[in-house]
Amino acid sequence: MSAHGFPHAPNTLVISMTSKPTLFTDTIEETFIAVTLGLMTVITFANVVARYIFNSNILWGLEVTVFLFAWLVLIGCSYGVKKSFHIGVDVLVNSVPAGLKRIFTLLACIACLSFAVLLFIGAWNYWGPFAGVRPLPVLYNDLIASPLGLAEIEYRWRDQSFYETDDVPVPLINAWLSETFNYGERYEKLPRFIPYFALPLGMGLLLFRVLQASLRIFKGEQDLLIAGHEAEEMLEEAIAGDGEAK
Question: How far apart are CA 136 and CA 125, in angstroms?
Fold first, then answer.
C-alpha cells in the first residue's frame, strides 16, 4: 500500500500476469530487448577496437547500431506499458475519491488510445511506401470508400521500395527481396523497409498494450496506466535501510 492508501499499480497485475501464454510472450520480448542491447554493445566495442588498434573500421557498424537502438526503444515502449513501467504523475488522481479517480483513469485511457492510434497511422503511412505497401488512407479509399460510394481521402504517395540503407550489406535472401519488393532489380544494400519496420511494429504493439491495460482498468483488475510511486518506494526503502543500520 502507498501512503495514499491505494495499492501500487504493478501489484494489481500479479494474477493476470502469471499465465503461461503471458510468461511466454514476456520471455520473447525480454530476450529480444536483451539481445538487441547486447548486439549494440558488441558492435560498438568491435568498431572501437578496429578503429584504434587496427586503424580500420566496421563501415556498417554505426548505421546498424542506430537501427538496433530504434528497435530497442520502440519495442521497449510497448513492453513498458505492458508491465506498467512508464513513469507518470498521479498526484491528482490519488487526491480525489475512488469513483472520480476511476473516471479520470478511464479518460486517461481514452487519451492514450487516441494517441496510440495516431502514432500507428503515422508509422504505417511512413513505412508503407518503403515496402511498396499502400498507406492507410489509400487502403481506405480502395477497400471501403470506393466500394461503398463514400467520400474518398485525397492522399498522394509513391512507391519507394527501391530506397536502400547507406552502408548495411544486403542479406542472403537478396534474390527473394528483389523479386518481391523491387520488381526484380537487385538490391545493392539492405532495403530501408526492413529496419524501418520497427515503426509500425512498435506502434502497433503500443496500441495493443494500451488497449490491454485499458481493458484491465475497465474490469477493475488494474489501478493506473502508469507506475507513479517510485520516489515514494525509494524513500520507504531508504528509511527502512537506515532503521536496519541503526
Answer: 6
d(CA 228, CA 205): 22
Distance CA 156, CA 134 (A): 10
Q: How many Cβ atoms from other residues are within 10 Å of residue 237's Cβ?
A: 10
- 23 vs 114 pLDDT, higher one: 114
* 122-126-131-134 Cα dihedral, nearest 10 degrees: 60
DSSP 170: P
Query: Has this prediction a pTM greater than 0.85?
Result: no
**Residue 215 to residue 203: CA distance in whole angstroms:** 18
Q: What are phi and psi of 166, to 5 degrees?
A: -80, -45
Q: Is the separation of the CB atoms in 72 and 33 below 8 Å? A: yes
The number of beta carbons lying within 10 Å of the beta carbon of residue 48 is 13
Grid cell of 184 as nine digits:
526484380
The span from the CA of 200 to the CA of 127, in Å, is 7
- Read off the pLDDT of each residue in 46-67 and give the average, rounded to a whole number: 90
Task: Quickly list DSSP for 186-234.
Answer: PPSS-BTHHHHTHHHHHHHHHHHHHHHHHHHHHTTS-S-SSB--HHHHH
Question: How far from the centroid of its chain's Cα atoms is residue 163's Cα?
Answer: 24
Write down the residue that cell numbers 511466454 correspond to.
24
Average pLDDT, the chain: 80
